[in-house]
Give the backbone structure.
Amino acid sequence: MTDLKKIIREVPDFPKPGILFYDITTLLMDPAGFKQVIDTLEARYAPMKPAKIVAIDARGFIFGGALAYRLGVGLAPVRKKGKLPWQTVKASYELEYGVDEVHMHKDAVGPGEKVVIVDDLLATGGTANAAVDLVRQCGGEIIECAFIIELDFLKGREKLRPIPAFSILNYNE
């Protein structure tokens, strides 16, 4: 197995001073590493039989799309405001500098459908928690939230409780 942390590029002071950015583009360029991530997610979620993968804009689309394909299930995108062409449900979340919102088509997840929410990174949990809200508004049931990277020190997992969360890689600072 590939040590995925060695593949992910760490970029200091991006997008602003004091932030260490974990750049997954290097993981995406590595065929063995990318395959390992999708294989790990498939092995975890195939037995749980989700009806859909809910993927968060934008890097969550990459992993969520590949996982949905491998599982043979639908993909429901969660997008930023103004990006979806039809009727949507919306959920707001806090940013360090204000409030933003995400949207999902109101028919993207049906009542009682079991879903896995996928994104590349769990930091403070705001976006993931908003995606949980969208699925609930549509009547869906969340099996788990899945992330490639979790920044444990930002305690995003706590914001998601009682929804279970799974991360392939954890960083403690």
In short: The radius of gyration is 16 Å. The longest strand covers residues 141-151. Residues 49-171 form a domain with the Rossmann fold fold (CATH 3.40.50.2020).
